[in-house]
UniProtKB/TrEMBL annotation:
Domain Response regulatory per the UniProt entry, residue ranges: 13-126
Taxonomic lineage of the native organism: Bacteria, Pseudomonadati, Thermodesulfobacteriota, Desulfobacteria, Desulfobacterales
Keyword Membrane part of the UniProt annotation: no
Modified residues (4-aspartylphosphate): D62
Record InterPro entries: CheY-like_superfamily, Cyclic_di-GMP/3'3'-cGAMP_PDE, HD/PDEase_dom, HD_GYP_dom, HDIG_dom, Sig_transdc_resp-reg_receiver
Protein name: Response regulator
Pfam family, one: Response_reg
Assigned keywords, A-Z: Phosphoprotein
UniProt keyword Phosphoprotein, yes or no: yes
Length: 333
Protein backbone atom coordinates (compact mmCIF):
# COMPACT_ATOMS: atom_id res chain seq x y z
CA UNK A 1 0.00 0.00 0.00
CA UNK A 2 1.06 3.56 -0.63
CA UNK A 3 0.45 6.88 1.06
CA UNK A 4 -1.67 8.06 -1.84
CA UNK A 5 -4.23 5.28 -1.40
CA UNK A 6 -5.97 7.31 1.29
CA UNK A 7 -7.58 9.59 -1.27
CA UNK A 8 -8.48 7.01 -3.90
CA UNK A 9 -11.79 5.96 -2.38
CA UNK A 10 -10.34 3.65 0.27
CA UNK A 11 -12.06 3.78 3.63
CA UNK A 12 -10.23 5.97 6.15
CA UNK A 13 -8.34 3.90 8.73
CA UNK A 14 -8.02 5.12 12.34
CA UNK A 15 -5.73 3.50 14.91
CA UNK A 16 -6.63 4.04 18.58
CA UNK A 17 -3.86 3.53 21.13
CA UNK A 18 -4.67 3.37 24.85
CA UNK A 19 -3.85 1.02 27.71
CA UNK A 20 -7.38 1.30 29.16
CA UNK A 21 -9.72 -1.25 27.56
CA UNK A 22 -12.83 0.78 28.37
CA UNK A 23 -11.42 3.81 26.53
CA UNK A 24 -10.41 1.65 23.58
CA UNK A 25 -13.94 0.24 23.26
CA UNK A 26 -15.55 3.67 23.59
CA UNK A 27 -13.38 5.33 20.97
CA UNK A 28 -13.59 2.34 18.65
CA UNK A 29 -17.40 2.64 18.74
CA UNK A 30 -17.28 6.42 18.09
CA UNK A 31 -14.86 6.01 15.21
CA UNK A 32 -17.00 3.34 13.55
CA UNK A 33 -20.10 5.49 14.00
CA UNK A 34 -18.37 8.08 11.81
CA UNK A 35 -17.94 5.45 9.09
CA UNK A 36 -14.20 4.86 9.47
CA UNK A 37 -12.27 1.60 9.91
CA UNK A 38 -10.86 1.31 13.43
CA UNK A 39 -7.82 -0.59 14.65
CA UNK A 40 -6.67 -0.75 18.28
CA UNK A 41 -3.43 -1.14 20.22
CA UNK A 42 -2.67 -1.01 23.95
CA UNK A 43 0.70 0.78 23.73
CA UNK A 44 3.09 2.46 21.32
CA UNK A 45 5.01 -0.71 20.43
CA UNK A 46 1.80 -2.49 19.45
CA UNK A 47 0.79 0.55 17.40
CA UNK A 48 4.08 0.45 15.45
CA UNK A 49 3.50 -3.25 14.71
CA UNK A 50 0.03 -2.46 13.35
CA UNK A 51 1.40 0.38 11.20
CA UNK A 52 4.07 -1.89 9.74
CA UNK A 53 1.31 -4.13 8.39
CA UNK A 54 -1.47 -1.66 7.56
CA UNK A 55 -1.75 1.84 6.07
CA UNK A 56 -3.13 4.05 8.85
CA UNK A 57 -4.47 7.53 8.17
CA UNK A 58 -5.01 8.86 11.71
CA UNK A 59 -3.64 7.72 15.07
CA UNK A 60 -5.46 8.69 18.27
CA UNK A 61 -3.07 8.03 21.13
CA UNK A 62 -3.08 8.34 24.88
CA UNK A 63 0.10 9.79 26.40
CA UNK A 64 0.78 7.76 29.55
CA UNK A 65 1.20 4.12 28.46
CA UNK A 66 3.62 1.28 29.22
CA UNK A 67 6.45 0.17 26.89
CA UNK A 68 6.17 3.22 24.61
CA UNK A 69 4.24 6.35 25.56
CA UNK A 70 2.28 8.62 23.25
CA UNK A 71 5.04 11.23 22.97
CA UNK A 72 7.58 8.71 21.68
CA UNK A 73 4.94 7.09 19.45
CA UNK A 74 4.14 10.46 17.87
CA UNK A 75 7.84 11.05 17.24
CA UNK A 76 8.18 7.64 15.56
CA UNK A 77 5.10 8.27 13.41
CA UNK A 78 6.32 11.68 12.21
CA UNK A 79 9.72 10.22 11.31
CA UNK A 80 8.61 7.02 9.60
CA UNK A 81 4.93 7.12 8.61
CA UNK A 82 2.41 9.40 6.94
CA UNK A 83 -0.37 9.21 9.54
CA UNK A 84 -1.70 12.27 11.37
CA UNK A 85 -1.81 12.13 15.17
CA UNK A 86 -4.40 13.23 17.74
CA UNK A 87 -3.07 13.10 21.31
CA UNK A 88 -5.32 12.64 24.33
CA UNK A 89 -4.76 12.53 28.08
CA UNK A 90 -6.66 12.60 31.35
CA UNK A 91 -3.92 14.58 33.03
CA UNK A 92 -3.88 18.20 31.94
CA UNK A 93 -0.41 18.68 33.40
CA UNK A 94 0.90 16.10 30.94
CA UNK A 95 0.38 18.28 27.89
CA UNK A 96 -1.37 21.34 26.50
CA UNK A 97 -2.73 21.85 22.99
CA UNK A 98 0.27 24.02 22.12
CA UNK A 99 2.71 21.40 23.39
CA UNK A 100 0.92 18.61 21.53
CA UNK A 101 1.10 20.48 18.23
CA UNK A 102 4.76 21.32 18.84
CA UNK A 103 5.48 17.61 19.27
CA UNK A 104 3.82 16.82 15.94
CA UNK A 105 0.16 16.19 16.75
CA UNK A 106 -2.63 17.63 14.62
CA UNK A 107 -5.00 18.00 17.59
CA UNK A 108 -5.36 17.34 21.30
CA UNK A 109 -8.27 15.86 23.27
CA UNK A 110 -8.62 16.27 27.02
CA UNK A 111 -10.25 13.37 28.89
CA UNK A 112 -13.08 13.17 29.76
CA UNK A 113 -14.49 14.36 26.43
CA UNK A 114 -17.99 14.61 24.98
CA UNK A 115 -19.05 12.58 21.97
CA UNK A 116 -19.64 15.78 20.02
CA UNK A 117 -16.19 17.17 20.78
CA UNK A 118 -14.56 13.90 19.75
CA UNK A 119 -16.48 13.78 16.46
CA UNK A 120 -15.63 17.40 15.61
CA UNK A 121 -11.92 16.99 16.31
CA UNK A 122 -11.59 13.67 14.47
CA UNK A 123 -13.53 14.83 11.41
CA UNK A 124 -11.59 18.11 11.27
CA UNK A 125 -8.25 16.27 11.19
CA UNK A 126 -9.48 13.84 8.53
CA UNK A 127 -10.96 16.62 6.38
CA UNK A 128 -7.73 18.60 6.61
CA UNK A 129 -5.78 15.47 5.68
CA UNK A 130 -7.92 14.81 2.62
CA UNK A 131 -7.64 18.46 1.56
CA UNK A 132 -3.86 18.36 1.91
CA UNK A 133 -3.70 15.19 -0.17
CA UNK A 134 -5.78 16.81 -2.92
CA UNK A 135 -3.50 19.85 -2.84
CA UNK A 136 -0.49 17.54 -3.09
CA UNK A 137 -2.00 15.82 -6.12
CA UNK A 138 -2.76 19.18 -7.75
CA UNK A 139 0.81 20.31 -7.14
CA UNK A 140 2.14 17.08 -8.63
CA UNK A 141 0.00 17.60 -11.74
CA UNK A 142 1.21 21.20 -11.99
CA UNK A 143 4.82 20.08 -11.64
CA UNK A 144 4.30 17.56 -14.43
CA UNK A 145 3.03 20.34 -16.69
CA UNK A 146 5.97 22.59 -15.77
CA UNK A 147 8.40 19.73 -16.41
CA UNK A 148 6.84 19.16 -19.81
CA UNK A 149 7.23 22.82 -20.75
CA UNK A 150 10.83 22.91 -19.49
CA UNK A 151 11.77 19.77 -21.41
CA UNK A 152 10.14 21.13 -24.56
CA UNK A 153 12.13 24.35 -24.28
CA UNK A 154 15.31 22.33 -23.75
CA UNK A 155 14.59 20.22 -26.84
CA UNK A 156 14.13 23.42 -28.85
CA UNK A 157 17.75 24.37 -28.10
CA UNK A 158 18.95 20.83 -28.85
CA UNK A 159 17.20 20.90 -32.22
CA UNK A 160 19.07 24.07 -33.24
CA UNK A 161 22.42 22.84 -31.89
CA UNK A 162 22.61 19.09 -32.64
CA UNK A 163 26.31 18.85 -31.78
CA UNK A 164 25.55 19.64 -28.15
CA UNK A 165 22.19 17.87 -27.95
CA UNK A 166 21.63 16.61 -24.42
CA UNK A 167 24.20 19.01 -22.94
CA UNK A 168 21.66 20.81 -20.77
CA UNK A 169 20.25 17.59 -19.31
CA UNK A 170 23.73 16.23 -18.60
CA UNK A 171 24.71 19.49 -16.89
CA UNK A 172 21.53 19.31 -14.80
CA UNK A 173 22.31 15.68 -13.92
CA UNK A 174 25.80 16.52 -12.64
CA UNK A 175 24.66 19.71 -10.89
CA UNK A 176 21.99 17.77 -9.00
CA UNK A 177 24.55 15.24 -7.76
CA UNK A 178 26.92 18.03 -6.68
CA UNK A 179 24.07 19.71 -4.81
CA UNK A 180 23.18 16.47 -3.06
CA UNK A 181 26.81 15.95 -2.08
CA UNK A 182 26.76 19.44 -0.55
CA UNK A 183 23.65 18.60 1.47
CA UNK A 184 21.33 21.09 -0.23
CA UNK A 185 17.60 20.80 0.37
CA UNK A 186 14.91 19.60 -2.04
CA UNK A 187 13.83 23.11 -3.03
CA UNK A 188 17.34 24.19 -4.04
CA UNK A 189 17.95 20.92 -5.87
CA UNK A 190 14.69 21.34 -7.79
CA UNK A 191 15.73 24.87 -8.70
CA UNK A 192 19.12 23.63 -9.92
CA UNK A 193 17.47 20.91 -11.99
CA UNK A 194 15.16 23.37 -13.76
CA UNK A 195 17.93 25.92 -14.32
CA UNK A 196 20.28 23.21 -15.56
CA UNK A 197 17.81 21.96 -18.15
CA UNK A 198 17.23 25.55 -19.34
CA UNK A 199 20.63 27.21 -18.86
CA UNK A 200 21.41 27.50 -22.58
CA UNK A 201 17.88 28.52 -23.60
CA UNK A 202 19.22 31.88 -24.78
CA UNK A 203 21.05 30.12 -27.62
CA UNK A 204 17.79 30.08 -29.57
CA UNK A 205 18.70 33.67 -30.47
CA UNK A 206 22.12 32.62 -31.87
CA UNK A 207 22.31 31.73 -35.59
CA UNK A 208 22.51 27.97 -36.07
CA UNK A 209 25.58 28.29 -38.29
CA UNK A 210 27.49 29.82 -35.37
CA UNK A 211 26.35 27.18 -32.92
CA UNK A 212 27.50 24.39 -35.24
CA UNK A 213 30.59 26.11 -36.69
CA UNK A 214 33.32 23.43 -37.06
CA UNK A 215 36.17 25.88 -36.37
CA UNK A 216 37.04 28.37 -33.65
CA UNK A 217 34.70 31.34 -33.33
CA UNK A 218 35.74 34.85 -34.32
CA UNK A 219 35.70 37.60 -31.68
CA UNK A 220 32.40 38.92 -33.03
CA UNK A 221 30.84 35.45 -33.02
CA UNK A 222 32.05 34.79 -29.48
CA UNK A 223 30.59 38.11 -28.29
CA UNK A 224 27.29 37.01 -29.79
CA UNK A 225 27.51 33.64 -28.01
CA UNK A 226 28.15 35.50 -24.74
CA UNK A 227 24.70 37.10 -24.98
CA UNK A 228 22.90 33.81 -24.36
CA UNK A 229 22.72 34.04 -20.52
CA UNK A 230 21.07 37.46 -20.83
CA UNK A 231 18.67 36.26 -23.54
CA UNK A 232 17.78 33.20 -21.43
CA UNK A 233 17.13 35.42 -18.43
CA UNK A 234 14.95 37.78 -20.47
CA UNK A 235 12.84 34.83 -21.66
CA UNK A 236 12.44 33.31 -18.18
CA UNK A 237 12.26 36.35 -15.89
CA UNK A 238 8.52 36.87 -16.27
CA UNK A 239 7.68 33.26 -15.48
CA UNK A 240 6.65 32.98 -11.85
CA UNK A 241 8.94 30.12 -10.83
CA UNK A 242 8.85 29.35 -7.08
CA UNK A 243 12.66 29.61 -7.03
CA UNK A 244 15.15 31.98 -8.78
CA UNK A 245 15.51 29.86 -11.92
CA UNK A 246 15.88 32.87 -14.24
CA UNK A 247 18.64 34.41 -12.10
CA UNK A 248 20.54 31.12 -11.94
CA UNK A 249 20.43 30.89 -15.74
CA UNK A 250 21.57 34.53 -15.91
CA UNK A 251 24.61 33.82 -13.72
CA UNK A 252 25.87 30.44 -14.92
CA UNK A 253 28.82 31.99 -16.80
CA UNK A 254 29.88 34.27 -13.94
CA UNK A 255 33.13 33.51 -12.13
CA UNK A 256 34.10 33.89 -8.48
CA UNK A 257 36.81 36.48 -9.27
CA UNK A 258 34.44 38.66 -11.31
CA UNK A 259 35.91 37.71 -14.69
CA UNK A 260 32.75 36.04 -16.00
CA UNK A 261 29.80 37.36 -17.98
CA UNK A 262 27.32 38.94 -18.59
CA UNK A 263 27.23 40.86 -15.27
CA UNK A 264 30.77 40.47 -13.97
CA UNK A 265 29.52 39.30 -10.58
CA UNK A 266 31.96 37.99 -7.96
CA UNK A 267 31.95 35.99 -4.74
CA UNK A 268 28.77 36.03 -2.69
CA UNK A 269 26.99 38.14 -5.30
CA UNK A 270 26.67 34.91 -7.32
CA UNK A 271 23.83 32.64 -6.24
CA UNK A 272 24.96 29.35 -4.65
CA UNK A 273 22.90 27.44 -7.24
CA UNK A 274 24.65 29.30 -10.08
CA UNK A 275 28.07 28.43 -8.61
CA UNK A 276 27.10 24.76 -8.80
CA UNK A 277 25.75 25.10 -12.33
CA UNK A 278 28.89 26.85 -13.60
CA UNK A 279 31.12 23.98 -12.44
CA UNK A 280 28.81 21.32 -13.89
CA UNK A 281 28.65 23.27 -17.16
CA UNK A 282 32.43 23.53 -17.46
CA UNK A 283 33.00 19.85 -16.66
CA UNK A 284 30.38 18.60 -19.13
CA UNK A 285 31.50 21.01 -21.88
CA UNK A 286 35.15 19.96 -21.63
CA UNK A 287 34.28 16.27 -21.36
CA UNK A 288 32.01 16.21 -24.41
CA UNK A 289 32.55 16.72 -28.13
CA UNK A 290 32.11 20.16 -29.64
CA UNK A 291 31.77 21.09 -33.34
CA UNK A 292 35.31 22.54 -33.33
CA UNK A 293 37.06 19.84 -31.22
CA UNK A 294 36.72 16.31 -29.84
CA UNK A 295 35.91 15.76 -26.19
CA UNK A 296 38.86 16.48 -23.92
CA UNK A 297 38.01 13.77 -21.41
CA UNK A 298 37.14 13.81 -17.73
CA UNK A 299 40.73 14.07 -16.49
CA UNK A 300 41.26 17.41 -18.23
CA UNK A 301 37.84 18.66 -17.15
CA UNK A 302 38.60 17.91 -13.51
CA UNK A 303 42.10 19.36 -13.84
CA UNK A 304 40.51 22.64 -14.96
CA UNK A 305 38.29 22.99 -11.92
CA UNK A 306 41.12 21.92 -9.58
CA UNK A 307 43.48 24.49 -11.11
CA UNK A 308 40.99 27.32 -10.74
CA UNK A 309 39.46 26.25 -7.44
CA UNK A 310 38.93 29.41 -5.42
CA UNK A 311 39.68 31.64 -8.43
CA UNK A 312 36.93 30.97 -10.95
CA UNK A 313 35.02 28.30 -9.05
CA UNK A 314 33.64 28.02 -5.52
CA UNK A 315 35.99 25.71 -3.54
CA UNK A 316 33.12 23.88 -1.84
CA UNK A 317 31.48 23.20 -5.19
CA UNK A 318 34.74 21.95 -6.71
CA UNK A 319 35.31 19.63 -3.75
CA UNK A 320 31.76 18.28 -4.02
CA UNK A 321 32.20 17.72 -7.77
CA UNK A 322 35.47 15.84 -7.26
CA UNK A 323 33.81 13.73 -4.56
CA UNK A 324 30.90 12.99 -6.90
CA UNK A 325 33.27 11.88 -9.66
CA UNK A 326 35.26 9.74 -7.22
CA UNK A 327 32.00 7.92 -6.47
CA UNK A 328 31.85 6.73 -10.12
CA UNK A 329 29.41 9.31 -11.46
CA UNK A 330 28.54 8.72 -15.11
CA UNK A 331 26.58 10.96 -17.48
CA UNK A 332 23.39 9.45 -18.86
CA UNK A 333 23.36 8.87 -22.58
Amino acid sequence: MTENEITSGKKISVLVVDDEKSILKLIQRLVRQEGYDCLIASNGLEAITVMEETVVDVVITDIAMPKMDGIELTKQIKENYSADVIMMTGYFKDLSYENAVTKGAKDFIQKPFSTKEFQIRLNRVIKERETNQELKKSLERMNEIVDGVINSLSLTVDARDPYTAGHQKRVAQLAIEIARSMGLGKTQISSIRMAGILHDLGKIAIPAEILSKPSMLSDIEFRLIKTHPQVGYDILKNINFPTPVARIVHQHHERMDGSGYPLGLAGDDILPEARILMVADVVEAMFSHRPYRPGLGMDKALAEIKKNRGKFYDPDVVDACLKTMAENFKFDG
